[in-house]
Design a protein that fits this description.
The structure is a homodimer of 339-residue chains.
Chain A lengths: L8 E6 L8 H12 L4 E7 L1 H10 L7 E5 L10 H10 L6 H10 L5 E4 L3 H12 L9 E6 L6 E4 L9 H17 L7 E4 L10 H16 L4 E5 L1 H6 L5 E3 L2 H26 L3 H11 L5 E5 L4 E5 L5 H17 L1 H9 L6
Parallel strand pairs in A: 1-2, 1-4, 2-3, 4-11, 6-9, 7-8, 7-9
Antiparallel strand pairs in A: 5-6, 5-10, 10-11
Helix pairs in contact in A: 1-11, 3-5, 4-5, 6-7, 6-12, 9-10
Chain lengths: 339, 339
């Protein structure tokens, strides 16, 4: 449920998620407390560690609730099995499960993890269930395209979706784009040519399904779009694809921007302004993805993210919760649930 | 066959391929003639049109051979069917078929088209046949990565390859990287995590096959790599994937670099140096892809490429032909042909 107006939005944050945890997460808490945002943080992890992290940074323990969890997702072995088992325990032990339950049980309005994406997706789905009308969840990432922001989904939650799942991604992504203030977004199908009928079997079937179903829902379908259209933003403002292709593309775009920053910075003989652009982008649109299709506002950040990026994920989660994105996605997807 | 040392390398160029053809191709011819490269051009298209293009630009008709072809690949309807039919005619009519035959028949050492990728691939495969040991062709593109160049393949020739085809792409790409002067290149499998076992079924099977087969061939396997590794170039210098994912990634990287050039140029208040970086990259590594796995040196350029990019494709084709890339690929792949 979104927090009522005037209230603080409560965001549960995985203390042990991400390559630099818990320190990077602790630094992110410091950044958040300096902001004047109407957010109350619930730091999810071992109480002793959480207290120590706050103390070391001189942060006011009265402004952060520590929500006890025993440990992070074990990265050796089978992280998804560990999450599955944990969600069946009466007393959950893993930070992702405890954070997801905090939202399910009404203690928090949203949750954030910068840890293992698959583990966070599993915790969200198994704890809060899927939104009616959406078979598979999708990670929606906002790209800072040239003309206007583009919502790319799925960026890595569902590897082998059906054509029908891509239609559901489209509807959910369209809701999300509208909630971000994109006027009249249209949906494109990511493929390898701008003409109809290009790509593999999934794309050919999905193009047909999207054309038929989106039109029936009054959502404009822009047809096939290509990799460069995702960063141009002129042909479509919502781009749907499977989680494999979306994840590869997203990371490729991130890498290419880093490459360009280095090479162009050198061309000017002074890398400062180029690196500032990278910092702005990395702590803005790129910072994390919203998991659409689960009954909880969930944001997944980069495993290697900085404190500023983790803080940006918390802001994104708070904005989605306060803006009622989940309710909008639910309302739009309900008609797609088979009777 | 590579041209003997001291001879000119003969490159057949599709006059009617690409969005800006024939004018952009004509301008590319002008650029090529100004270069002092040891290349002789065969311009493939209608003789009248070719003569007119040379005359309009004041180019010496003695320095370019016009190879007669009736028309370009028809883009309405079914371009691949048109190519298939044309390759069965005694007298080919389409520029791509005529260009491919020029190589097959020993009139040219390599050919270039900036037209429809699928049509060029079809003309190459149907005219020259595949290299023994390689079931499907792959388009290999060189990315200007931060540490050293990275060869990405397949960038769009084979949409649904098998795990075995990815092994063949790896061997061919490894030969190509070595011919470019990359010392001790290692091969990575593009997927969505740096740990083993990530991704879809193709990736899981391919990872197993690559680990086993490449090791047997003495080719270092770097394991799974991600989208950003392709632009970093530190983990692997040859990255293999299916033609769908590779094409989406390549276009996404190109778009991201363009985005960064615009946004960073604005940050400096003077876009000149940023745009020069883009021009350098676009007319260097990015300009076109080499089709590996067919018995002819074939370069496919961007449909929307500039004259400088088409000229860069011709230089790339000449360099591959003179460097004997095809012979090296053949020698490395022969042991993979089933007895």
């Amino acid at each position: 449920m979104p927090a009522a107006s005037g209230q603080l939005t409560r965001v549960a944050l995985d203390l042990l998620g991400g390559d630099g945890a818990p320190d990077v997460v602790g630094d992110a808490v410091g950044l958040m407390l300096r902001d004047a945002l109407p957010v109350h943080l619930l730091l999810v992890g071992p109480v002793d560690l959480g207290s120590q992290i706050l103390r070391e940074r001189g942060l006011d323990p009265g402004r952060v609730t520590i929500l006890p969890a025993r440990c992070g997702v074990p990265m050796d072995g089978h992280p998804l099995d560990a999450v599955r088992e944990d969600t069946q325990r009466e007393q959950a032990e893993l930070t992702v499960t405890v954070a997801a339950r905090a939202v399910r049980d009404g203690l928090a309005d949203a949750w954030v993890s910068a840890g293992h994406t698959g583990a966070a997706v599993a915790a969200a789905v198994l704890t809060s269930g899927r939104v009616a009308g959406m078979q598979r969840p999708a990670l929606a990432v906002v790209l800072p395209a040239l003309e206007q922001p583009v919502v790319l989904l799925d960026a890595g939650a569902s590897i082998d979706p059906s054509p029908q799942a891509l239609v559901q991604f489209a509807v959910a992504g369209w809701c999300y784009a509208r909630s971000l203030g994109v006027a009249e977004p249209s949906v494109g199908l990511l493929t390898i040519g701008s003409e109809s009928g290009k790509g593999d079997e999934l794309r050919r079937e999905a193009e047909h399904a999207l054309r038929e179903r989106l039109t029936a829902h009054g959502i404009p379908f822009a047809g096939p779009v290509e990799g460069h259209d995702v960063v141009a933003g002129s042909r479509a403002q919502v781009v749907v694809t499977d989680g494999f292709t979306g994840n590869v593309l997203l990371k490729g775009i991130e890498g290419a921007v880093e490459w360009a920053v280095e090479r162009i910075g050198r061309a000017y003989g002074e890398p400062g302004p180029a690196r500032r652009v990278l910092r702005e982008v990395a702590t803005g649109e790129f910072a994390g993805g919203v998991l659409l299709g689960v009954n909880a506002t969930t944001v997944v950040g980069h495993g290697g993210g900085s404190a500023a990026q983790v803080a940006a994920c918390v802001r994104l989660a708070a904005r989605c919760a306060a803006g009622g994105v989940l309710a909008q996605v639910r309302a739009a997807l309900a008609p797609l649930e088979p009777a």
